[in-house]
Design brief:
Elements: E1 4-5, E2 10-11, E3 14-15, E4 33-35, E5 42-53, E6 57-68, E7 72-80, E8 85-88, H1 93-103, E9 107-112, E10 121-127, E11 139-145, H2 149-163, H3 172-183, E12 188-196, E13 201-202, E14 206-211, E15 215-217, E16 228-237, H4 239-242, H5 245-250, E17 258-266, H6 268-274, H7 276-279, E18 286-296, E19 303-305, E20 311-314, E21 317-319, E22 325-327, E23 330-334, H8 335-341, E24 345-349, E25 354-359, E26 361-367, H9 373-378, E27 382-390, E28 393-400, E29 404-409, E30 413-419, E31 424-435, E32 438-443, E33 455-457, E34 460-464, H10 465-470, E35 475-479, E36 484-488, E37 490-493
Parallel strand pairs: 1-11, 5-16, 20-36
Antiparallel strand pairs: 2-3, 4-7, 5-6, 6-13, 6-14, 7-12, 8-14, 9-10, 11-12, 15-19, 16-18, 17-18, 20-21, 22-23, 23-34, 24-25, 25-29, 26-28, 26-37, 27-28, 29-31, 30-31, 31-32, 33-34, 35-36
Helix pairs in contact: 1-6, 2-3
C-alpha cells in the first residue's frame, strides 16, 4: 500500500495546515508546478483531471505524466483556494473513470470533410481516453499556507538543505508564478516530493477535497514546464455550469481551443466508483463532460468558474473575465470589455485621464428624440425612421460612416447648468463623454432620477450599463434564469 507522509510545518507566522488522510477517499487530478534542486529539463506532456463540483465544494482527482532529462528528485506543488484534504486515490481510479465514460458513450466530436462543402460536418469522433503510465514511488506530501513568494522560496531552500540537495534560489519565473497565486488569495499549496526518471511515467493520483465558491483548476503552474502537451478535464456538476465552461476555458489559452465531448447524465452511485467522496457532493443526477486541449503549455490563467456570479455577454459573446458590480439596482460594467466585444479599439490617454474607444463607424438603432440624438446629428450621423417601438418609444436606424472616437474622462468635470429657481447658471461636476468632440452628460449628481456614476474599480473604468442604451442605442437586458447581463443590437466595425 502506498504511504503518504504529512509533516507539520510553520512558514513564518503562518501555521501550516495539515489534515488527516482517508485512504478510502479516491483521488482527483489537477495540474502542478515542479521545482528541481539543480538545472534539469523536466517535461509534463500530459495531464488528466476528474473534477466534481457542487457550487460549494470540489473534489479533484490529480495525476500528471512527467519525465526528466536524467533521474532526479523534485518537489511538485499545487495551489488551492482553501485548505485541502488530501487522500490517496484507488490504484485503478482512472480505469474506473474510463469505464464510466465508455458506458455513457462520451466522445469528442470530429470534423469530417464534406464533399464540395465549404464547411465541415460534425460526426462521431474518438472516445475520451484516460492515459496511464508506470507509477512512481512513495508520496511525501506537505500542505502549507504561504503569505508571499519570499517565504515559499525560503521554505523550499530549507527543504533542499535538509535533503542534502543543492540549494538554489527560485528562478524569476517560478517566483512570479507563486507570487501571482498569493496575490489572488490562492495561498494554500500542496507540496509533494517525487522521483523523476528519463522515461515518461504517471505520478500516482491523489484526491483533494476543498471548499470553493467556483470550479477551480490550476493551469498556469504548467507554464513552468513549457513545451507542448495535452490537458484533459472530465467535469461533473449541475447542468447550468456547462453553459459557462466553454467560454471560461477559452480565456485560459492564448491560441488554439478546447475540444468538447458529448455530455451524459450520471448518478451519484456511479461517481462513487471513481471517487466515493464525489458521490456525497450530490443528491441527484449530474452532468458529465470532458474537455481537451492540445498545444503549447503556456496558459493565460487558471480555470475559475463561479456559476453564481453574473456573466457579461456582449453581442452574443461571453466575457468571462469581466467582473460586474451592482449598485442601486444598476449594473456597472468594465468599459474595455464592452467596447472590445463591439470591435472597438480601446486605449488610455494618461495625460487627459480619459478612456478612448475608437472605431471606423457605428451601426445601431436608437430611440427617436433621445437625449443623445443631437450629439450624433452634430457629428454627421444619418437616421432612417422606423415604425417599430423599442421600450415603448419609436426608434430610428442610425449609421455613422466617419471614424468614431468616444472619450470618457474618468474624473468629473465642471459643467455650467442653468438653475431656473435662481435664474442663473451654476457650475457643478458631472461625468461626461465626448463623441468626436461633442459633449454628452453621462451623470449629473443634481439631476432628478440620476443613475449610478461611472467609477474606477481596481484600476478598471466602469460605466453604468444604461449608458450603452442611452448613448449608443444598445439593448441592455438581464436574464435572471442564466444570470447574464446582455448588451446587444449594437455594432461597431473596422473598415477593411
Amino acid at each position: 500500500m502506498t504511504r503518504l507522509f504529512l509533516p507539520k510545518i510553520i512558514l513564518g507566522l503562518t501555521a501550516l495546515v495539515v489534515l488527516s488522510l482517508c485512504v478510502s477517499l479516491p483521488a482527483a487530478q489537477a495540474d502542478r508546478g515542479i521545482i528541481v534542486p539543480d538545472p534539469v529539463r523536466v517535461e509534463e506532456p500530459g495531464q488528466t483531471a476528474f473534477i466534481a463540483f457542487n457550487g460549494r465544494e470540489e473534489i479533484l482527482l490529480l495525476g500528471t505524466d512527467v519525465k526528466a532529462a536524467r533521474a532526479t528528485a523534485a518537489l511538485q506543488f499545487t495551489p488551492f483556494p482553501s485548505p485541502p484534504e488530501a487522500a490517496l486515490a484507488p490504484e485503478d481510479a482512472f480505469a474506473r473513470l474510463q469505464e464510466l465514460l465508455t458506458a455513457h458513450h462520451v466522445f469528442y466530436w470530429k470534423k469530417a470533410k464534406g464533399a464540395g462543402s465549404p464547411e465541415a460536418t460534425l460526426g462521431e469522433g474518438e472516445p475520451v481516453k484516460v492515459l496511464s503510465h508506470q507509477k512512481l514511488g512513495l508520496h511525501d506530501v506537505t500542505v502549507v499556507e504561504v503569505r508571499d513568494a519570499a517565504r515559499f522560496a525560503a521554505w523550499v531552500q530549507n527543504y533542499f538543505r535538509k535533503q542534502g540537495w543543492p540549494v538554489r534560489a527560485l528562478t524569476a519565473e517560478e517566483e512570479a508564478v507563486v507570487a501571482g497565486y498569493c496575490r489572488r488569495g490562492l495561498k494554500y499549496f500542496v507540496i509533494d516530493r517525487v522521483e523523476l526518471k528519463e522515461t515518461l511515467r504517471s505520478v500516482p493520483p491523489l484526491t483533494f477535497r476543498f471548499a470553493t465558491p467556483a470550479l477551480y483548476y490550476p493551469l498556469k503552474v504548467t507554464n513552468l514546464f513549457g513545451g507542448e502537451g495535452e490537458a484533459q478535464l472530465v467535469v461533473c456538476g449541475e447542468e447550468h455550469l456547462f453553459a459557462r465552461l466553454p467560454a471560461f476555458l477559452a480565456t485560459t489559452v492564448p491560441s488554439g481551443r478546447w475540444e468538447e465531448s458529448t455530455r451524459a447524465a450520471v448518478a451519484p452511485r456511479e461517481l462513487a466508483r471513481v471517487a466515493p467522496g464525489a458521490a456525497k457532493l450530490f443528491a441527484g443526477e449530474q452532468e458529465l463532460q470532458a474537455f481537451r486541449y492540445r498545444g503549447k503549455l503556456s496558459f493565460r490563467g487558471d480555470l475559475w468558474v463561479d456559476p453564481a456570479a453574473p456573466l457579461l455577454r456582449v453581442g452574443g459573446q461571453a466575457c468571462p473575465e469581466a467582473v460586474l458590480h451592482q449598485e442601486k439596482g444598476a449594473w456597472l460594467v468594465p468599459a474595455r470589455d464592452v467596447f472590445a466585444g463591439l470591435n472597438a479599439k480601446v486605449s488610455w490617454d494618461a495625460k487627459r485621464r480619459e478612456v478612448v474607444a475608437a472605431a471606423s463607424g457605428l451601426h445601431s438603432r436608437v430611440p427617436k428624440n433621445s437625449a443623445a440624438n443631437s450629439v450624433w446629428e452634430a457629428i454627421g450621423a444619418t437616421f432612417e425612421s422606423w415604425a417599430e417601438e423599442y421600450l415603448g418609444k419609436p426608434v430610428g436606424h442610425m449609421i455613422v460612416n466617419s471614424p468614431l472616437e468616444i472619450r470618457f474622462p474618468v474624473d468629473p468635470r465642471p459643467v455650467p447648468v442653468y438653475d431656473p429657481a435662481a435664474k442663473k447658471t451654476r457650475t457643478r461636476p458631472c461625468y461626461l463623454a465626448y463623441v468626436n468632440g461633442r459633449r454628452y452628460v453621462l451623470y449629473d449628481p443634481a439631476a432628478p432620477g440620476n443613475r449610478v456614476a461611472p467609477r474606477v474599480v481596481n484600476g478598471r473604468f466602469y460605466l453604468p450599463a444604461g449608458v450603452f442604451a442611452d448613448l449608443l442605442g444598445a439593448e441592455v437586458t438581464w436574464d435572471n434564469a442564466t444570470g447574464e447581463l446582455r448588451i446587444d443590437r449594437l455594432r461597431f466595425w473596422q473598415k477593411a
